[in-house]
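STRUCTURE REQUEST FORM
Protein name: GAF domain-containing protein
Source organism: Actinokineospora cianjurensis
Requested output: structure tokens
Priority: standard
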Amino acid sequence: MVTAAHRDNLFRGLVDRAAAAEVSQERMRHLLDAVLSVASDLSLPDVLRRIVTAGCELAGARYGALGVLGQDGHLVEFTHTGMTGRTEAEIGTLPVGKGVLGLVIKHPEPLRVADLAQHPDAAGFPANHPPMTSFLGVPIRVRGEVFGNLYLTEKVDGLAFTQEDEDVVVALAAAAGMAVENARHFDRSHRRERWLQATTEVTAVLRTSLCESAGMDLLAERARETAGAVLAFVAVPAGPEHLRMSAVDGVLADELTGECVSTLDSITGDVYVTGRARVLTEVAKATLTRSPSTFQQLPDGISELGPAVFVPLSAGARPCGVLMIARDHGGARFDDDDLRMVTDYATHAALAIDFADAQQDRQRLALYEERDRIARDLHDLVIQRLFAIGLGLQGLKRAPATPDAPERLTGFVAEIDQTIREIRRSIFSLQQPTGGPYSLRGEVLRAISEATVTLGFEPTVRLEGPLDSVVPADVALDLMATLREALSNVVRHAGAGSVALTVSVDRHARRLRLLVQDDGGGLPEDIAHRGGLANMVQRARRWDGDCVIDSPGVGGTRVDWDVPLARHAESQEGRG
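Status: completed
Returned output:
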């Protein structure tokens, strides 16, 4: 943003330079207008275009260009005006900073040339390049360092550029340096904000995702989008000497997904082993891998990639993978600011992955402790109960004709049914995964365990069918959200003393059903068809299912959530 103090400094400096150079009053007015136009924009590409246009207008040049220099002193960006799109396409490759252009780079001082062809450093023009005779080059400095050079050619009156032309362009370059600095600060802040947003989104998903591959896919996708790149991939360990591209986003995604690279003789492997980031000016020159045994031939599209950065996914002593981002051929190189932002992004992602791994370890430990508890309960409760039932049946055998025999027998059957339910529930608890695929059974039991604290009693649970093998993760997410909403409503509105819950898949594995029945006083009328209850219905309809909520006010509330599984399976097959 151009502040009043900033504008005053610009004008004060211009007036001093213009007075010293004896610039005419009319050109002084044009110069001030040009500087105000340049300084009024905060977009760096727009600022560069405005500088080139203003330089051409002030010096009367037909063609103008601004070459931005990289840290190695080579041109990394070239903004120009005056040529038609057709001419530009016929020329092809942009200048690289040789000849007279290179002279201004080596010696950053104003340079005027009456006839380029006669200059000893002239390198000539490429084919289809328009003829250019006169030349004026002026460096643009930002905080004392050369940011780039403003090149003007072919004065419209056919004459050579004058000392006054040079003076007014030098004054413009001084003001342009301050405008560039302002735009760079804004651009840097904007990029940092975008990377922070991407980091927040990705780390949240990586820490809570049910599927690790979904988190990795998002990690690559957001990296590519935020960096303005055409390709990004995440490579993870696949054995002691190989990395596998587990998530690829952008061009070549189909060709690269699942490919392996060697940790011994590839750039990706070098970053993984050393833990040090690598910045390349062009992927095609370095290639992604040099391992003939794992990647016989790079896809043709690799040669069309440009600048790239490889950073380790590292939050500790050893990286857990490598993130690579590549821009298009001819795209902007990754500078130090880019590298810092990408590295921070990768580090936070690695921390989130470590956190998720640690959480799985804690869950594993909790599962082992739960197994010990279940074993104790089986010994202390179930076995004792079965022993008591056995004694009772033996007593009934000795006196089968007593009047209360049928009632006692019915009681024993009920005790056996309850014992079977407890054993089944124990078995389901033991079937929770140990860090592998998502378990719907485990999630349901975990939700019930959490709800028991707020309900004040333990709901009755029935789990039927192959829940863990046929229910897709995204459908399971909607079922769990519905279950938690239903239990939350029981706590807040029903005043129930018991809840019966059933989650089932039919024997043909075609439908998934959730039934929640409580014995409370029903739901208030004002919430019966809005908020969370409406979301239950919406989640069912998303999968072509339905959700019926029956709350007559007497006999409690019944939630019947039912969705087909066939539709989802068919869509998955269609994508495969």
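Reviewer notes: Residues 289-298, 432-436, 568-576 have pLDDT under 50 and may be disordered. The chain is about 50% helix and 20% strand.
Form closed.
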